[in-house]
Amino acid sequence: MSLRPLLLTLLLIPMAAWADLRGLDLYARGEFAKALPLLEEEAENPARSDKERARARSYAAAAMYSLGRMEEAREQLELLARQYPEQRVDPKRFPPDFVALADLARKTVETERFREEARAQEAEQERLAAEAERRRRELEALQQVPEPVETQAVSSFRVRPELVGFGDFKDGTALGMAVGVTVGRGPLEGTVRALIGNPHIGWEAEAGVVFGSWAFQPRVSVRGILMPGIEVPDTRNPGAVQSAVRSGLAGAVGGRLALSPRVTALMDVGYGWLFGMPAQYNKHVVMASAGLGFNLF
Fold first, then answer.
1. In angstroms, what is the C-alpha Rg of the chain?
2. I need a labelling partner for 123 at 20 to 30 A (CA). Which of 64, 97, 108, 281 fits?
3. Rounded to whole angstroms, how far apart are CA atoms 34 and 63?
4. CA 257 – CA 270 distance, rounded (Å)
5. Which of 264, 268, 254, 272 has the alpha carbon at shortest distance from 296?
6. For residue 155, what pLDDT is reported?
7. What integer pLDDT is reported at residue 152 of this predicted model?
8. SS3 of 68, please?
9. Cβ neighbours of residue 134 under 8 Å, at least 6 residues apart?
């Protein structure tokens, strides 16, 4: 028998009298190879208490150590430290080098435990920080007041070239196209149009008001009409005619429909009176128009 097994045997001889774990008496007699499988079974025996299983694992590790199976002994001591942190290897029953190995195994396990706890704390801190950030963003979203769309539309400045078709529905004969431009700010608009009819070209100057800030905006307006090229009797030359300019006033109602941020549909119906028109011309005008405008601003 070598010196190490002999030393363990001398240390553990007093255990033989009170041994209650299977294999412990064999261990006490130095029969480590026979004691080891019994001690391993006792270390996993559910009928044993935690203290008894911990003690069985301690002696199983010691048997491995005595048989020269150092790596297996160290693994058993680390498992002992994980499963039963309160269980210590008794320096009075085991040789100093085995006790030192047990202390090293316990420190290794404690270091691993500290690292796991540190990782768990770091993960928890990250979770709390993410939760706080999520709540902060939700609070900011609740506190944000969107800028009213109506305020933006009413206060906007716009320049809109327009192309419309019109017809005089009083006699159904006056049809034509009109080109113009509208300048507006807020609910107020001013429009100038050239009425390209047959046989004359007329002009309109219009002041209008739009209501609301929705896609469709009702509109009312007042128009001044200028009709050049009207043939009237020449007072200085009986039987002859001369070209004259006639004017008129009209009112209109309609609406503006935003087809897109740039394109606007135009619809109006108006009634007007032309001053000093010859008998062959209509003095009363009932005009409807529809077209498109392109918003430059």
1. 53
2. 108
3. 9
4. 18
5. 264
6. 47
7. 42
8. coil
9. none
Name which of 45-49, 93-97, 167-171 the model is least confident about: 167-171
**Cβ atoms 183, 207 nearer than 8 A:** no
Tell whether the model's pLDDT for residue 50 goes beyond 70.
yes
Token pair recorded at residue 61: 């590790």
- The structure tokens 């002992």 sit at 80
Residue 63: which of 32, 84, 90, 86 has the closest Cα?
A: 32
Burial of 141 from C-beta contacts in 10 A (0-12 / 13-18 / 19+): exposed
Whole-angstrom CA distances from 134 to 4, 127, 146 are: 64, 10, 20
Cβ-based neighbours of 22, under 8 Å, separated by 6 or more: 38, 39, 41, 42
Indicate if the pLDDT at residue 17 is higher than 80.
no
Task: Output the pTM of the full model.
Answer: 0.46
Give the Cα separation of 59 and 224 in Å (integer). Answer: 115
Other beta carbons less than 10 A from residue 6's beta carbon: 11
State percent of the chain over pLDDT 90: 33
Q: What is the model's pLDDT at position 6?
A: 53
Look at residues 91, 73, 69, 93 and name the one whose alpha carbon lies nearest to residue 81. Answer: 73
CA neighbor of 195 nearest in space, from 150, 241, 248 = 248
How far is it, in rounded angstroms, from Cα 16 to Cα 27? 9
CA distance 52 to 75: 19
Mean of all residue pLDDT scores within the chain: 80
Residue 248 — very low, low, confident or very high, per pLDDT cuts 50/70/90? confident
Provide the token pair at 168.
């005089």
- In one-letter notation, the amino acid at residue 184 is G
> How many residues are given for the chain?
297
